[in-house]
Every structure is written in structure tokens, then in C-alpha cells.
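User: Predict the complex with zinc ion.
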Amino acid sequence: MTKKAWNVCPACGNEIIDGTQAIVLSDRRKGLAGCWQLIECNFCGIISMIPMPTDEQLANYYTVYSKDEMVDLSQKIGSRHPKLRKLFHRLSGDVDPRDFVQVSKNLRVLDYGCGHATYLSDFHNRGIAISGAEIAEYVVQACQKKGLDVQKVEDVNQIPFANGEFDIVYLMQVFEHLRNPNEFMQELNRVLKTGGMLYIAVPNKKSIWRKVFGTNWVSGWFAPFHLFHYDRNTLVPIARRHGFEPIKVWSSTPESWFRLNLKAFLFPDENSLDWKPSWLDMRLVQYVIMVVLRGIELFVRERDCLVMKLEKRG
Ligand SMILES: [Zn+2]
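Assistant: Here is the predicted structure with zinc ion placed in the model:
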């Protein structure tokens, strides 16, 4: 008998025995109508969206993803003062690859899912041989116009670069959007040189804030865009299966994520939180949240954003 799609784990392919613990979510951030179901696999421990949206549905969801189609590639304060930025991020909890990806001028770097190319253009301005890949056509065009090497992602399962092209690849808040984690990990292996480094940042399903906020943990859940939810124990086996060894694993809660979850909690009927201004966004309030958050997290191991540095073994 063939397995039915609704009870097969899309991450490991095993049949999920207990689907009764489903988490049912609506979109709280981009205003999409509907609800989506997440189930934790009792084999691999990964939480997946079941049923997985079709390509057509995903394409539809992403039409509302970004409201602003302007790409601003000007140098920001963070790129002019790297030491100050790093110090500030220790307080804000922001996960910024410029703070920890160890680049140098003789290394080829790929920013996969580079978004508005904030990090990529900064690395480029510092003389790093960096390329990017992005699905949004307007981003690709804006970057190319500025002389940045950003290639269009035509097929989400394929990286538009040659075998063994890169020494470093990083993906910031991208991997959880991809519907074929195993195939994609193999793709990452393909474009990296042996001994190359892979940095992945994803929401952490073991985060203490998931328990605190429940369904209001919108920074992590982000239905229907986040298709999978990982933690260190579930992401490492996928990486190992495809030739990677973890070098360093850590987690951090960006103040902006925490603030978004707080908004979700305070405004339970709001479904376009990403665009909802609130008194919580006042600078002074942000600083207070930062300080309180850093204080609490001195005693916490599992924070909202999980970051992994992995090495491609020969
Ligand atoms: Zn599974």
C-alpha cells in the first residue's frame, strides 16, 4: 500500500504515527487568509507543514511577501563601523553574517537568498569575491545594475552556480522556506569546495520563546512561509547525511523577533503584523526590550535563531 501524503514526514519519509498533536496556524504577518497545519515527526523530530503547499500555492503566497520593491544598496551605518555594529548586535541579538562569517580576499563566497543584498553589497564593497542568488526578479535586476553578481533562482531546488565554486556559503533565514531540505543540502555540498564552510541560520524550534508565546511565536512559525522547523538535534543529522560536520552551533534572539512576537500577543486579531506600527517600535522601548531580553537570556541555552557553522568533509 502506498503511503498517503498527509501522514508521511516530508523531511525523512517515515510515516507519522501520532498526528493528533498538530499545530494549526493562521498567517499573522502578511495578511493571507487560510490556516495551515504543522506536525512533529516522531522519527526525525522535525516539524513540517502537512500537507506541504504546492509550487503554485507557494508562488501565490509569495506575491504578498514584500510590499516594497525598492532595493536600497546605499552604505548604511552598520557597514561603515563594523566594530560598533558587532558590539550593537551583541546587545540587539541580531544574527548578521558580517559579524561571524570568516571571509578573506582569496575566498569565494555565496549569499544564498540574499534578499535586498544588505550583507552581500557590504562584503562586495570590502573587496570580497561574493556572489548572490535570489528568487525575486526585481532584486536580481537592481543588484546586477549596481555591478553585483546576483543570479536568479529559477528552480528552488537548484543553486545557479557550478560544482565546487565556493569556499563559503551562507543562508540567513532561508533554509526553513525550502521544501526539500535533503535535496537542498546535497546542492549546498555540490557548490562548496572540500573543506569549505557552510553557515545556516534558522528559527529554533527548541527556543524557550516558542513555549512562552505559543501560537503567537510568529517570528518562528511564520505560516505559511516556514515549511520546516528545526533545532540543533534535527538539523545536524541532515547536514551529516550530506557530508557536513558541525564546527560551531549557537543561538541568539534578535530583539526585533521578540518585539514581533510581543505584538502578536498584544494584538491577537491583527494578521498583518509586519506592517503594523505600534508604540513597541519606539526607540526607547526597543532599548528597554533589548536590555531585559539579554538579562533573561544569560540563563537560557535555546534562543530564537539557531546558527550553525558546518564544514564540508572530503
Ligand atoms: Zn521525519
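The chain is about 30% helix and 20% strand.
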